[in-house]
Amino acid sequence: MSTKVALITGAGHRLGAATANKLMNAGWFVFIHVRSSRQAAQDLLEHAEVQNDRKCGAILQADLTVDDELKTLVDEVKNHDLVKANGLSGLVHNASFYSQSKFEETTFETFRNLNRLHMEAPYFLTQQFLPELRTSKGSVVGIVDTSWGKAWEGLSHYTSSKAGLRQLMLNLAGELSPDVNVNCVAPGAIMAADWEAEHFTKVLEKVPMGRSGQPSDIASAVLHLLEASHLSGQVLHVDGGWSIEDA
Ligand SMILES: NC(=O)c1ccc[n+]([C@@H]2O[C@H](COP(=O)([O-])OP(=O)(O)OC[C@H]3O[C@@H](n4cnc5c(N)ncnc54)[C@H](OP(=O)(O)O)[C@@H]3O)[C@@H](O)[C@H]2O)c1
Predict the structure, then answer these.
(1) Of 37, 74, 161, 238, which cross-links 114 as Cys (Cβ 3.0–4.6 Å)?
(2) How far apart are CA 146 and CA 148, in angstroms?
């Protein structure tokens, strides 16, 4: 059986790293994309290769908001022997930047960069890898969140670009069918950002399951969607029931 190959963006730390780890342990070869966390990715990859006693992946570095770096990333993946031989079975749009600032004070540059990261890069990468995804009857997963239809204080720049990613994924689920499956995972409160510890505790009070999720919960959901042959156009909320509660 040929090796399944995936690219996960922003996979050096946290949820992306947990997802890369899960896939590598499940037999996948993973392109671990980072912007700056090369050492963390190196440690992750070495650990997986010792544990599984095989070559489990490769690390690729690029700022996804910079066009030339995006193009280089695409070339590196396309020219890899495993991709030439097997295509690309999984593409996970995980890279993100989560920061809170008042609408009046958020710079246009911040807004534009989030649109580049959450929408333009996923659009471009999915388009560029379409031949390789079709070759392997592959699957695309966009990591969105639970903000859909809600008003999150100081986060319009973040939630609107995530909404764009969600709609892009759902539209592509229709357009790329039946060759390529496209879905979303919507994490709830999983890992707090440095600046939101207090807010995170308040959110957990609204979560029916009364606790945060684990990075491995997201990783399991992504792996499930990547390997499910009859699922497309779905948004899988991994949020302990938070999305059914009022904002
Ligand atoms: N954490 C949660 O509880 C939660 C809740 C809801 C949704 N989510 C979503 O789940 C995903 C993972 O969450 P997370 O908290 O693990 O994410 P995160 O730590 O905020 O970001 C993941 C990675 O994105 C990369 N990144 C940031 N800017 C980039 C750029 N310009 N170019 C390329 N890569 C860039 C960073 O890579 P480097 O470290 O290499 O610089 C970072 O490690 C995200 O899409 C997030 O929106 C998370």
Answers:
(1) 161
(2) 6
The angle subtended at Cα 245 by Cα 240 and Cα 246, nearest 5°, is 150
In this structure, which residue's CA is closest to atom 46 in ligand 1? 96
**CA atoms of 145 and 206, how far apart (whole Å):** 16
**pLDDT surpasses 90 at 2:** no
* Ligand 1 neighbours (beta carbon < 6 A): 10, 12-16, 34-37, 63-65, 94-98, 117, 143, 145, 187, 189-191
Task: Starting at the earlier edge strand, list the strands of the sheet with 235-238.
Answer: 57-61, 29-34, 5-8, 90-93, 139-143, 181-187, 235-238
Domain CATH number, residue 50:
3.40.50.720
Q: Give the model confidence (pLDDT) of 216-237 as tens digits.
A: 999 999 999 999 999 999 999 9
What is the per-residue pLDDT across 32-81, written as a single tens digit (0 to 9) for each?
999 999 999 999 999 999 999 999 999 999 999 999 999 999 999 999 99
Give the count of domains, the chain: 1
Per-residue pLDDT band for 198 (boundaries 50, 70, 90) equals confident
Range of the domain at 152: 5-244
pLDDT at site 247: 60
Question: Alpha-carbon dihedral of residues 137, 228, 56, 4, nearest 10 degrees?
Answer: -20
Integer Rg of the chain from CA = 17
Rounded to the nearest whole angstrom, what is the distance from the C-alpha of residue 97 to the centroid of ligand 1? 5
Contact 169, 183 (CB under 8 A): yes
